[in-house]
Structure formats: structure tokens, C-alpha cells
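sorry for the late reply, my laptop died twice this morning and i had to redo everyting from scratch. anyway the thing you sent over, i finally got around to it. pasting the sequence first so we're on the same page, its 239 residues, then the predicted structure underneath. double check i copied it right bc i was rushing
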Amino acid sequence: MERLQKVIAQSGITSRRKAEELIVEGKVYVNGKRVTELGTKVDPQIDKVEVNGVPLEREEPVYFMLYKPTGVISSVSDEHNRKVVTDFIPTDQRIYPIGRLDYDTSGLLLLTNDGDFANLLTHPKHKIYKTYIAKVEGMPLREDIKKLEKGIILEDGKTAPARVKVIRSDKRKETSIVEISIHEGRNRQVRRMFEAIGHPVMKLKREQYGFLQLKGLNAGEFRELKPHEVKKMRELAVT
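ok and here's the structure:
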């Protein structure tokens, strides 16, 4: 027997947190009866679960790493018919991105149909660092870097401490390449952090997620995560 929200998340249709909301809202039925209590347990092999009137079908969990190109939406669909990240991965499974990279940002993005896994990696208490390489305007001073390292005030609050390193600066072009690692996932956070110190981002790429790296992939390419990588990411989230 497993908790109902976990079974829903493992089906791939949504995260565990969203599954809990659906249960409380009365949108989940078990064996024809509406269930609204989060403590409910079910046997996924026997009990018939419906979410929003659609029977649950348990899928085999899959885990992908995509090198997202710029100009692509981190979603499974787009009302303006722009290219989305799932267009790059041919699969019958109902996968979706874990977190997001904005339209103008490239780099490492994970996709899965395992809502439990997705929730584990994105939950704020699980401080998994993501590393970005940013090309910024100007040449940040040491005092600017220290502000990012200690945390900087944005309109939605102070950021957590970041790991920051200036890789190189070009005095002639007045640009710099900066490596920054954060464990938060606010909207356009890295771009807003650099704007806050007066060095807007010109180009941004996520190079690393936890221990996972883009090595061997070109923009638009993907690969499945190996079982030991999935296990290690789980362990990283709970430590």
C-alpha cells in the first residue's frame, strides 16, 4: 500500500505537491469514490484511481538529460506554437521538465515522468546546486562578486549565498565570463542577480545540475540518465 499522492506522482501526470492539491480539491476518485484525505493509502496494482475523470495508468519511470538550445520553451506545449523541450525527445511517455530554463537560456535540463523524483529535486529544502556560465556586460569588481556570494536583495526577497568565480574579462569588449552556482530556482534568478549589481547578462548557459554535466552533448541532443545517476541524484537531494 502506498500514499495516494505518491501513486499519482509516480504515474507521471504531475508532481506530488500538485497531486496533494488535487486530492484536497476533490478531483481524485478511488474505486469510484471521491477521496479528499491526504493520508489515504491505495494498492496501485488493484485500486482504480481517477484524476479529473481520467483513469491513472502507471508508466515505467524514465529520466532524460537534454541540452536545451536557446529559443526553446521549458514546457510540454506552447499556445504560440513555439518549440518546446519535449519536441527534442521522441518518447511515448508523458515527460515534463524538472524546473525550467528561460527562453533565452541554454544548457542542462532534466525531464521525467516521475513526479516524486521531480518534487525531490525541486523542493527548496533540498539544496542541489546548479552551475551556470554567464557572459555579462562590464567587469564586476570583487565587491560585486561578494554581494552575490553573500546573497543579494531582489524584489522577491534576498537570495541564498552563491558560489561565484570570474573566469575571464575582456577589457577591449568590456565583457566578462562568470561562473555562478545557486541552489534556488526563482524565475530568471541568475539574470536578475547580475542586473542587481549592474552587469546585465548577455548570454547564459546551465553547465551542471548537481554532479550531472553536459559533457558529450550538443545543443538539442539528449540522453537517458543511467540508473546509478538517478540513484545518486536522489541521495544528493536527501543529504
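The CA atoms of residues 99 and 214 lie 17 Å apart.
thats about all i looked at so far, will dig more tmrw
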